[in-house]
Design brief:
single chain, 307 residues, alpha/beta, two-stranded antiparallel ribbon, 37% helix, globular
């Protein structure tokens, strides 16, 4: 495993962050704990609780109790409800404070490294809630504040300077708007945690090969649009992702995101120990020669043909 500086805090986090949600808990406490132990053995020191679910918090707290707390980075998603109870989104000061207090009480983690707001809307986060989070940060129950999402409103949240972390989808086919947001956040010394590195549009060889084809347009979508022309027309999609020896398409997509020096850590989601081990090995692997250039050419080709 490799590690990167965590924003302006002076700390370091593993290049991979393990997502811990209800899918992990559903396999039982023992299986969930074993997954976390496997992540620790692979060198992963960053973990995200996808909700304030007390069962998950207790499992995480027990599994991580043998490690020096200062060496870990634990984030908590706020605002999305508790999953199994299907609670409504809640960005109120009382709701978020209660969620943080409950997780800390059950897990005995001592503090939350990142309180991460789940894509709050433009008018969804009142000033009282932000003040409450800043008060928790002042008392060190929360060390950093973050915002997660990919909607245009994220630009406004990044520009406020109130947040220390940006969590956003980033992959080989992310548009320039997302990449520009990441650069702006990095210029503000925000830590960048990315997710969705392997988009569904590329998860099979058939989809990847056809990813470059423009969508049909015209009357009721029955007729194709005007023929595309240009030096990159017909270059093809991302079929090569599924044709690279000794690399899966998912591993290539993960490795590609890790080449971006603005990225602090990449969120991975799995409940499989074998898949976790395969993904945890990617940071130490060298991307095949010329593959980065292929990815960039395919991305530019798709952007050009979509214009």
């Amino acid at each position: 495993m490799r590690y990167r500086p965590f924003g302006a805090t002076g700390g370091a986090v593993s290049e991979l962050t393990l997502s811990l949600g209800l899918g992990v808990v559903s396999r039982g406490p023992d299986a969930a704990a074993e997954l976390i132990y496997g992540a620790l053995e692979a060198g992963i020191n960053a973990y995200r609780l996808e909700s304030a679910d007390p069962v998950m918090a207790e499992i995480v707290g027990q599994a991580l109790s043998s490690v020096d707390r200062k060496l870990l980075n634990v984030s908590l998603m706020l605002g999305r409800g508790e999953g199994r109870r299907n609670e409504a989104r809640d960005f109120s000061a009382e709701g978020m404070t209660h969620a943080i207090d409950r997780v800390l009480s059950v897990s005995r983690l001592g503090w939350i490294d990142i309180a991460l707001l789940d894509e709050p809307g433009e008018d969804e986060l009142p000033q009282s809630s932000l003040n409450a989070l800043k008060a928790l940060r002042a008392t060190q129950r929360v060390h950093c504040l973050g915002v997660a999402g990919d909607s245009p409103v994220m630009d406004a949240y990044v520009s406020t300077g109130a947040f220390d972390v940006l969590s956003t989808p980033l992959n080989v086919n992310s548009p320039w708007q997302v990449r520009s947001r990441v650069r702006l956040a990095r210029e503000r010394d925000m830590a960048i945690i990315t997710q969705d590195y392997f988009p569904e549009a590329l998860d099979t060889a058939r989809k990847a090969a056809r990813a470059h084809e423009p969508k049909k347009s015209g009357l009721f979508g029955l007729f194709g649009g005007a023929p595309r022309t240009g030096p990159l027309h017909g270059v093809g999609g991302y079929a090569f992702l599924h044709q690279t020896p000794n690399w899966s398409a998912e591993e290539i997509c993960l490795g590609s995101v890790l080449t971006d020096t603005a990225v602090t850590s990449v969120l991975i989601e799995t409940s499989s120990a074998d898949r976790l081990a395969a993904l945890a090995a990617v940071p130490e692997r060298q991307m095949p020669p010329g593959l980065s250039a292929q990815i960039e050419m395919a991305r530019v080709s798709m952007a050009t043909q979509a214009a």
